[in-house]
Specification:
Rossmann fold; 301 residues; alpha/beta; P-loop_NTPase; 7-stranded mixed beta sheet; ATP binding; 2 domains; nucleotide-binding; ATP-binding
């Protein structure tokens, strides 16, 4: 079980840039992205295709290197690690769950053998690794499917095995890329519930990349990425309405303000007010007001 350290941050990304060069073209996937994730947090990253979600996940997992910026995971500076150190980091500190359900597993091994395999490769003693494989399959609700091969399991069950494999060696970080992408809505809901259960049971930090808006009700925080930057945060927090009433979890939305003082307004806000190149702003005692430029309003009439 991963120990908790209060509000300490396990992941810190500052001013991240990632530029891919394709022939004579440059594609900017991340543009000065900032992100902090607390130890033991269960959070999701959402955004349209091409927004930079998977690029960010690959960087956090040590599978890719940013062009510029800072990436700290568990007090490790990933940009200062050697190739060998990154291999060790991926083996011991990060669990991965990919979208392709069948691609997460070895088809000719049983569920139990799939979970046991990474522990064999890491040199765990037989008794210890078998006990751990049993524990993890029970934790994801597959105690009755230990010796089933993937072709005898449903898509949701295969993804549960994949999650058990990812957490077999008890890594402090779990990264999931579109884990519900190939599943029906009911099965996807159950997979998100598995992530919640494991987060609460083991204290593992979980970052999920997804298009699935249903994730909002299953995680503590949702960060929206737009144009390679974090633009919006949705946080679920307990609120007490009356002294004798229990807490009720509510959603609060925040626009992210970066170090340069830039923020991205939600697209529906921009469309609602028909905001274009320039806007007027006014500083009040406790808020900032934003509205269309006067010339802009006249053009729209």
């Amino acid at each position: 079980m991963v120990s908790s350290q209060g509000d300490s941050y396990y992941i810190i990304c500052e001013d991240l840039f990632k530029i891919y060069k394709i022939a004579d073209l440059e594609v900017v996937a991340l543009r000065g992205l900032d992100l902090k994730v607390k130890l033991g947090e269960l959070m999701a990253i959402v955004g349209v295709s091409g927004s930079g979600k998977t690029t960010l996940l690959n960087i956090l997992g040590g599978l890719d290197i940013p062009t510029a910026g800072k990436v700290i995971v568990g007090k490790r500076d990933l940009l200062k690690m050697s190739s060998r150190d990154l291999v060790t980091y991926r083996q011991r500190n990060v669990g991965f769950v990919w979208q392709q359900v069948g691609g997460n597993l070895i088809p000719y091994l049983s569920a139990f053998q799939n979970v046991e395999l990474p522990l064999i490769l890491l040199g765990w003693p037989q008794r210890k690794r078998r006990r751990r494989a049993q524990e993890m399959l029970e934790a994801v609700g597959l105690a009755a499917r230990l010796h089933y091969r993937p072709d005898r399991l449903s898509g949701g069950e295969q993804q549960r095995v994949a999650i058990a494999v990812a957490l077999a060696n008890n890594p402090p970080l779990l990264l999931a890329d579109e884990p519900s992408g190939e599943l029906d809505s009911q099965t996807a809901e159950s997979i998100f519930d598995v992530f919640r259960s494991l987060n609460e049971a083991y204290g593992v930090t979980i970052v999920i990349v997804t298009h699935d808006i249903r994730i909002t009700d299953k995680v503590d925080r949702v960060v929206t990425i737009r144009d390679g930057r974090t633009s919006l945060e949705t946080i679920r927090e307990p609120r007490f309405r009356q002294p004798d009433a229990g807490p009720r979890r509510t959603l609060d939305e925040f626009v992210v303000l970066d170090k340069a003082g830039r923020l991205q307004l939600p697209r529906d806000y921009i469309d609602k007010l028909n905001l274009k190149e320039r806007v007027r702003v006014l500083l009040a005692d406790d808020h900032i007001a934003v509205w269309p430029e006067e010339s802009q309003k006249r053009e729209d009439r």
